[in-house]
Amino acid sequence: MDPLGKEISVSASVSPNETVESVRDDVIGWRRHLHQYPERSFHEVRTSQFVADTLASFGGLEITRPTPTSVLARLVGSGPGPVLAIRADIDALPINERNTHDFISREPGTMHACGHDGHTAMLLGAVKVLVGKRDALNGEVRFIFQHAEELNPGGAEELVQAGVLDGVDMIIGAHLWSALAVGKVGVKAGALMASPDILHITIKGSGGHAAIPHQTIDPIAIAAQFITNLQYIVSRNVDPLQPAVISITRIAGGTTHNVIPGEVELEGTVRTFDPTLRAEMPKRVERILSGITSAHGASYSFEYEHGYRPVVNDEGASELLRRAVVNALGDDVLIEATPTMGGEDFSAYQQRVPGAFFFIGARCEERGIVQPHHHERFDIDERALDFGTRIFVAAALDFLGAKQA
Ligand code: NI
User: Fold this and answer.
1) How many A from CA of 129 to the centre of ligand 1?
2) Are residues 304 and 285 in contact, defined by beta-carbon separation less than 8 angstroms?
3) Is the same domain home to 35 and 75?
4) Residues 301 and 178 in one domain
5) Is 3 a member of any domain?
6) In terms of CB atoms within 10 Å, which end of the chain has fewer, N or C?
7) Pick the catalytic residue: 18, 44, 149, 382?
8) Per residue of the chain (405 residues), what is the pLDDT tens digit?
9) Are residues 323 and 391 in the same domain?
10) For 15-169, where are the E strands, in sequence order?
11) Structural domain contains residue 8
12) Is 286 among the catalytic positions?
């Protein structure tokens, strides 16, 4: 019986001798298949079915679907012990791929441009290896194949609400990282990724003829001042030693050259690590918006959408990862990860249990694999997949007190 009182089939179809080397071709094949059939956040229907079917082919797992497009697999060892969760995200992005390799996306307008195809494949590889080692495991490894990392409010929070972390002692997860060379793995305790909050603003003036501006309240001229002044928050209000970014990323207003429009819409993002600073940001942005619009007789609407919480790594979980990297790959692979203002909904799991998120180098200058995440020619060096599989296997064996393979 397992801890939830449910009978589990223990007959695995995977050989106990399965190793990271022997699943390498599988992992690359799975990644290329997923790459050809990307699906966007909350629509990962075929992807989740593919994951569930592949997991079922290993045997020895309890497989459930906590939400319609996510998959949870539990590998319960032969004796009692702690529970380690490992998470991979499975969703793609609304980007039209412009790579030229022969496994390019077959879905126009949708692309695995962040590496989540690789995350899914390397975790499947780790499951396959670990299923073969079930008899050596004391405790449980829980594999979370998460939907919708790319779209606020994210799939992680939904899975936490669905109870996927019930009974879990620690969680780890990784991102293939285009800023880091293949062959390196970055781990860091403490703050690693920012909270990506979202701004929605409308500046409301009064439109009219472009040649008679004094009879209008020109929202385009006011928006220009607002955008310029907004940058004073980071440069003049925020402690220079405290990371913060404000970017306006969309500005929409007007229809033609001789009409001053009535309104301008703006969208953007605010990135911070520190919770106190994060809490102050909406006030600071609105103070400038209110001051500039009222100075010119305009009005505004302002919506501040809170995105994911910052990813802050637990010391113990980070140490588990450092040991796993060194045991599986050697000392010279491990580096201290550089924090990024990017966001990740892995933070939702870290609100519930100790966890650590880390970066696996996937860049290769010689092979021309240099584009940033979310680029239409984003790619990964597939040698990185092996690193992920090895680290997950090593971390699971370590956490569950089994001998390293
Ligand atoms: Ni990503």
Assistant:
1) 25
2) yes
3) yes
4) no
5) no
6) N
7) 149
8) 343 434 444 567 788 878 889 999 999 999 999 999 999 999 999 999 999 999 999 999 999 999 999 999 999 999 999 999 999 999 999 999 999 999 999 999 999 999 999 999 999 999 999 999 999 999 999 999 999 999 999 999 999 999 999 999 999 999 999 999 999 999 999 999 999 999 999 999 999 999 999 999 999 999 999 999 999 999 999 999 999 999 999 999 999 999 999 999 999 999 999 999 999 999 999 999 999 999 999 999 999 999 999 999 999 999 999 999 999 999 999 999 999 999 999 999 999 999 999 999 999 999 999 999 999 999 999 999 999 999 999 999 999 987 655
9) yes
10) 62-64, 71-76, 79-89, 138-146
11) no
12) no
* Same domain, yes or no: 85 and 209: no
Report which of 180, 179, 176 is spatially closest to residue 387, judged by C-alpha positions: 176
133 with 39, same domain: the answer is: yes
Tell me, in angstroms, the distance from the centre of ligand 1 to residue 141's CA: 23
Q: In angstroms, what is the span from residue 112 Cα to ligand 1's centroid?
A: 9
Residue 116, C-beta contacts closer than 8 angstroms, at least 6 positions apart: 88, 89, 90, 91, 92, 149
Q: Which amino acid is at 100?
A: T
Of 91, 140, 197, 382, the catalytic one is 91
Tokens of 148: 């919708």
Total tally of structural domains belonging to the chain: 2
Given 288, 305, 322, which residue is the final one in a domain?
Answer: 305
In whole angstroms, give the CA distance from residue 263 to residue 253.
6
Q: How far is the CA of 342 from the centre of ligand 1 (A)?
A: 9
Catalytic site includes residue 149: yes
Q: Residue 354 Cα, ligand 1 centroid: separation in angstroms? A: 21
Question: 10 lies in a domain?
Answer: no
Residue 383 lies in a domain: yes
Q: Which domain holds residue 180?
A: 20-193+310-399
